[in-house]
Amino acid sequence: MNQKSRGIAHWPKSERPRERLLEAGPASLSDAQLLAILLRVGRQDFSAVQVAMDLLHHLEGLQGLANRSLEELCAVPGIGPAKAAQIKAAIELGKRVLSTPLTTGTKIANSQIVFQHYYPLVRDLRHEVFKVILLDAKHAVIRDLTVSEGSLTTSLVHPREVFNEAVRESAAAVIFLHNHPSGDPSPSSEDRILTRRLQEAGNILGIQVLDHVVIGDGRFVSFADEGWIA
């Protein structure tokens, strides 16, 4: 059994990921070493670093790690539910750190604010998620909610589900957003039809539809910016 197959506790301190991070900072560690700190222990005859390397290899790097399910993580030898949960929690914290705070009372002045907040949260999803941001009369955030989660190509959204909470929260206006896992934010014909239906429902209820933001890979399309919101 070579040194790399032994537990990290038996390695020289200069090679242990945790000690190296404390001495030289996180930037000095490789992806596998950072991941090994989360995993803490490996599996029989394999260190946590080796398990981390296997994980990154099977899931095609950090990007793959971010968008795989718990079941897919657990399919890699040495990764059980507890370790998979730790990884998912760390990834979610990273997303939240990157997203611009959009707390209750935050005023949304433009579509860029919506994109900056939600892009880190939806960029790695492999399915569409449709969200609605509820706003008061001054266009300040009341809260947001997920209305629907669909497949790679479609997300079923009904005006009843969209406006139910808006009415309950006495929202004066709403902003819709959803992601395109393909990376291309260009609205589909279904997106345009849905937006018109939601606008019509909002008009009946007296709730203004301010925008519908479609998020792709590093870019977005705003219906309001394009002049598609009446």
From TrEMBL:
The keyword Ribosomal protein does not apply. Residues 101-229 form the MPN domain. It comes from the Bacteria. Gene3D superfamilies: 5' to 3' exonuclease, C-terminal subdomain, Cytidine Deaminase, domain 2. The keyword Mitochondrion does not apply. Keywords: Hydrolase, Metal-binding, Metalloprotease, Protease, Zinc. Belongs to the UPF0758 family. This is DNA repair protein RadC. It comes from Candidatus Nitronereus thalassa.
